[in-house]
Amino acid sequence: MPHVVTLFDVVSAPPDGDGTRNGTRDGAQGGTRGGPGARPGAGEQTFWFVMEYVPGGGLDRSPPVSPARAARVGAQLADALAALHEDGIVHCDVKPANVGLTRHGTAKLLDFGAAYRVGGIETITVNGPSSFTPDYAAPELARGNVPRPASDVFCLAATVHALVAGVPPRGGPPGEDAGPAGTADGGAETDRLRHWKAEQGVVELDAAVGPLRPVLTAMLHRDPRQRPDAAEAGRLLADVAGAGPEPSSPSPGTAGTVTGRGLRRRPLLAAALAVSTVVALGLIAVQDHGGDGTAASSPSRAARDRTAGATANGGTGALVGDPRTADVCALADPAALGQFGAGDVRVDVDYGNFDRCDVLVGVDDETRIDTSIRLLDGSPPEGSRPVRTVGRIGIREEQADRDECTRLLTSGGDTARVEVRVNMGKGSVVGGSSTLCTVADKAAASAAQVLDRGPVPRRSPAYPRTSLAWADACALLDAEALSAVPGLKVDVPEVGVAKWRCKWSSDVDELNATIAFFRDQPRSAVGGATSRTLSGYRTVVGPDDADTCSAFVEYRRYSGQDGGTAAEMVRLDATGGRPMDQLCTMATGLATATAASLRAR
């Protein structure tokens, strides 16, 4: 990981009776503070972390920098956090004192003594009480809740603010003089005030942050579900950095200079960290993702979406943000739909494309209502007007069918939309559009209340880097591959959200070809379907409707909802006025090309 201090080795040693090892004093130069209780005592095994030498130490004593420079540092740290979060590590104590710069000005995240492991990650120690610095801590950390990746995003925003303004966004002395939680620095009264501000999520942005204000406001949201994740925060910070001047690279003779204190130089082995088994971090669990031994960059960073700007508290902004990090299921409220069922209401998070989330309402043994919440691109239909509003969110009605009812959620001139579509599940007894529209109204109102507080909440954790969520479905088929379907207009596809779906049309026999990502239980070869292996990927091909043959290329399996097996697939549809065997030949040709493209990724 290029922006995380490198761990070279871990050396363990049996404890001495007084908690020291081989005469080395506790707190030797180069040790990193691990929070309250970090110092090993008698009878506790000691671990020494041999780590990369970062010559400048922390940034807590550095003078204020420009917003663009702080944004560059923040973007690099966000990249580090995104990789750590994917591996189940929450740092918990991101602050200027825990950020160092290499001789070339590259930011490095330091001091993992307070880190917390989530998601069942196995490491050499168990999680202890979380440690944090109140002036930089997210409110959920200060209240004693379990740390989450979104907590690091808050701390990162507070750190970026301090790099520009010299103080964190909730005030306090410059630098890190206040100390971590649990210390008495600053007096008991001051300490209580700092903790109260931290618990309440009190923030006040300094005017010096300038163009960083909207990004920091979103990252400092009191509700962790409303914050962007680390990957999106990195993109937003990189956008601010890109608008500012490039700083000159520090010379080797001045890299890491600490104002007023001179250069803090330490030999490599002096950077070894002595920690007890209580706080020894699971850095052992952090793995490289790049084939060259370095961390792979965030898949979404290569395709920045400048319309993904997060929304300031109570302000306006993109309704959806970056769809790759959006948690569509955060718009679903099963409790609001409970009145329509017999208690069997559940959210299905592993069905369909990444742009949707379903709520299944069991009315009785024979009837089920399916509510689908989807992200859409493009302006609402002409002439359509909101029939009601929830804050700044307008709710529009679409023409209702007997077995379906749809509502559209929009915000001002924003071209992004959220669709709430309600229909009767397959095999259900049709109950008429009036009931369905009542459900749609309830579901739309609940989703609008969430959207009125800001853009669609971010996923936590984010999709893994191996997920198709980071891929471009449209790019998996080129003109040669699309020639499997006669007459397709390959240059004018209908493109879906985040390029997770593409559809091409033909003037020949009303033929269409569609490629889309799809999640569900692994497909079975039933109902006339056949199974085969294409370029190493299990593929099921068969009729889907009277005029459609579908191929499902299984890309990867994962542990889905309730521990069940789910799969990410690429779905290829060949539709039109041709016999089914010809349509399935076309679908197989599309699937063959898709599987080859997946193998080449």
From TrEMBL:
SUPFAM superfamilies: Protein kinase-like (PK-like). Residues 175-187, 241-260 have a biased composition (Low complexity). Transmembrane segments: none annotated. Residues 28-40 have a biased composition (Gly residues). It comes from the Bacteria. Residues 1-240 form the Protein kinase domain. The keyword Transferase applies. Signal peptide: none annotated. This is non-specific serine/threonine protein kinase. It comes from Streptomyces olivaceus.
